[in-house]
Design goal:
The protein is α/β, with parallel strands linked by helices and 495 residues long. 44% of the residues lie in helices and 15% in strands. It is built from 22 helices and 15 strands. The strands form four sheets. It has a six-stranded mixed β-sheet with strand order 3-4-14-9-10-13, sandwiched between helices. Strands 8-5-6-7-15 form a five-stranded parallel β-sheet, with helices on both faces. Strands 1-2 form a two-stranded antiparallel sheet. The termini are far apart.
């Protein structure tokens, strides 16, 4: 098996092993780590169809994480995908209204981020041992709602680590906020910033690029890393569940071996749909990658015009994990369509940082042929939740509803009847008020926890443990700050 090495999208000029890329999180020049080649699946789809999630995940990840031994990688996977998930399938498929919903929210924090963040702490601590790292790892993360809690749950009380999570104080759902601010663990800190997610993400990236601060931390025995989707250790595990979804459809006789499927993903930071693209490059028979945006439709406009422009009004929506104007993982796709040119990628990212926009060439735009962009506004999102529920009794959250709506519009517009897998990225219990109001506005008169019980009756499902845990949990994190105070908050936490 050929070794896969990693280097920066912006041309830092250093090659890293997989474990070192996982440890660093972000390249020193601000770029993202990309593999020197995309490996091909070395098991047939029929062989993979006979495997459970854990064994299939090993077969996919071993191709990217080539310096982890089999025992190391299998051990990480076994510790990640265990009883924390409420179903043995880990990521089951549900059919509703002509589409297959890949339920990625059966983990500890009921959002798709659990699929990678249950694994990342084990990949990271294993990497630290492999590379003789003696320093304490400080995980620095910005969240639009879901990454934060999933990262906190993964790293809480993990020896040799600390984790600091910044979230937009007024930009997450009440359930998302309660999940984060009640997080236990002596090594955890949660901070509400006065700004939006892009402000938090930009602030974190600036801190990563602050060499003086890094030197100061190094002298005190600390080293930064990231749990955001910019970390390759987040991206690789996400590739697995698209392969798993295909092989479940194959095993159940819903598709034939080699038959194409389309994939539709509600998209904010672009990592989840990029993972589907990587799966396609590995040989998975995927046709269209349908990129679904909410009212913050910066990605839709990019796929339509070839211009990425963050200079626009920022909308706070009922799908807050997608309220993003700077989609960090798009940089990896830009690098790919630019012919793996780090110079070109660095140029475009410099324009984004300076002017807030960039435009790709017509030739580069041809590299986007596999993608289709669509978006749903707030009314369309709510109407889709109501429609799916009334037609099938299936209840979806606000992010999944964006994808579901865009998927239906794509089918209507193109007549494409290829089987489609929709990434269902969060439990409806995480956005209960928005979901219940969409079904019937009368629900808005009730409290959040009354709505949770009503949702359980309505959907004939059990309230997830993640929700039960926060009903009476005390608030442990009350820190707030302005964006320009983020660094001092970190320094204070680390003393």
């Amino acid at each position: 098996m050929k070794e896969v090495t990693y280097s920066s999208t912006r041309g830092e000029g250093v090659k890293y092993t997989a474990s070192m890329a996982v440890l660093k999180g972000l390249a020193s020049d601000g770029g993202l780590f990309v593999p020197d080649h995309i490996p091909s699946l070395d098991k047939t789809l029929a062989e993979l169809a006979e495997m459970d999630y854990q064994n299939l995940a090993y077969e996919v990840m071993k191709l990217f994480l080539t310096d982890y031994t089999e025992d190391e990688l299998r051990g990480c996977i076994a510790r990640a995908y265990d009883s924390k998930f409420d179903t043995p399938e880990i990521a089951p498929l549900s059919e509703s209204c002509g589409s297959y919903y890949l339920e990625l929210w059966h983990g500890a924090t009921i959002a798709f981020k659990d699929m990678a963040l249950s694994l990342l702490p084990h990949l990271m601590t294993t990497a630290a041992k492999k590379n003789g790292l003696q320093k304490e790892i400080v995980i620095l993360t910005a969240t639009s709602g879901d990454t934060g809690k999933a990262a906190l749950a993964g790293f809480a009380d993990v020896p040799g680590t600390r984790i600091v999570v910044f979230y937009p104080k007024s930009g997450v759902s009440p359930i998302q906020e309660k999940q984060m601010v009640t997080q236990r663990g002596d090594n955890t800190l949660v901070v509400g910033i006065h700004g939006n997610f892009d402000d938090a993400q930009t602030g974190v990236k600036k801190i990563f690029g602050d060499t003086e601060f890094a030197k100061e931390l190094d002298e005190k025995g600390f080293v930064f890393s990231s749990a955001n989707s910019i970390n390759i250790g987040r991206l690789v595990p996400q590739v697995c569940y698209y392969v798993y979804a295909y092989t479940r459809l194959l095993k159940e006789g819903r598709i034939k071996d080699g038959e194409l499927i389309n994939v539709c993903v509600p998209t904010g930071n672009f990592g989840n749909i990029l993972a589907a693209f990587y799966a396609k490059l590995m040989g998975l028979p995927v046709g269209k990658l349908i990129c679904a945006s909410n009212t913050n439709k910066v990605l839709f406009d990019f796929f339509e015009s070839g211009t990425y422009d963050r200079n626009r009004e920022f909308h706070v929506t009922t799908s807050p994990s997608m309220d993003i104007l700077i989609s960090s993982n798009l940089e990896r796709l830009i690098y790919f369509i630019a012919g793996n040119s780090s110079d070109r990628c660095a140029q475009l990212m410099g324009e984004l940082s300076g002017n807030g926009n960039y435009t790709i060439t017509d030739e580069e735009k041809k590299g986007l042929a596999d993608f289709y962009g669509g978006y749903a506004d707030e009314k369309e999102t709510a109407d889709q939740i109501k429609k799916i529920y009334e037609k099938s009794g299936y209840v979806i959250d606000t992010h999944t509803a964006v994808a579901s709506y865009v998927c239906d519009k794509y089918k209507e517009k193109t007549g494409d009847d290829t089987p489609v897998v929709i990434a269902s990225t969060a439990s409806p219990y995480k956005f209960t008020r928005s979901v219940m109001n969409a079904i019937d506005p009368e629900y808005d008169k009730k409290t959040d926890f009354e709505l949770i019980d009503d949702l359980a009756k309505l959907s004939n499902t059990t309230v997830p443990q993640a929700i039960e845990d926060i009903r009476s949990a005390p608030v442990l994190h009350k820190t707030e700050c302005d964006v320009n105070e983020m660094k001092s908050v970190i320094a204070g936490f680390l003393k």
